[in-house]
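pinned: reference chain
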Amino acid sequence: MGVGKSTVGRLLAERLGVGYRDTDEDIVAAQGRTIAEIFVDEGEEAFRAIEKAAVRAALTEHQGVVALGGGAVMDADTRALLAGHQVVYLSMDVEEAVKRTGLNVARPLLAVNPRKQWRELMEARRHLYEEVATAVVATDGRTPEEVTQAALDALELKQV
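pinned: its structure tokens
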């Protein structure tokens, strides 16, 4: 959350001369409501089912850069879908997360004790991010442009 998936994804797509797609944006457009509203109205399990379908559609229909929501890798089927794709895990520590997002209540999984919950989420997810990642790029203290260049370098991709 707040790591820069959307910003860096758009920059990567631009530099590679390909399209960009964000599964969170797909979900909001299809559902006509925010992700936070889906969590409140239907719960996390229902959201994850919607997210799984959105990721499958994006990976099937889109040939460019795809940004996934932070919890998408929790699903084993989604992790299997990512096999064979170049995946960049953008990492950051909790102090950077606080600076970037304030860890506010607009993020449904961080509504109570945000720092503790962020750490717990990362402990539960980090190994899954690393499992699917072709490259890990630290974002702490870097501009989006620096992160984008680091991702290009890590994947050994050429800009257009």
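why pinned: The beta strands are 20-22, 65-67, 88-91, 135-138. Residues 96 and 141 are 8 Å apart (CA to CA).
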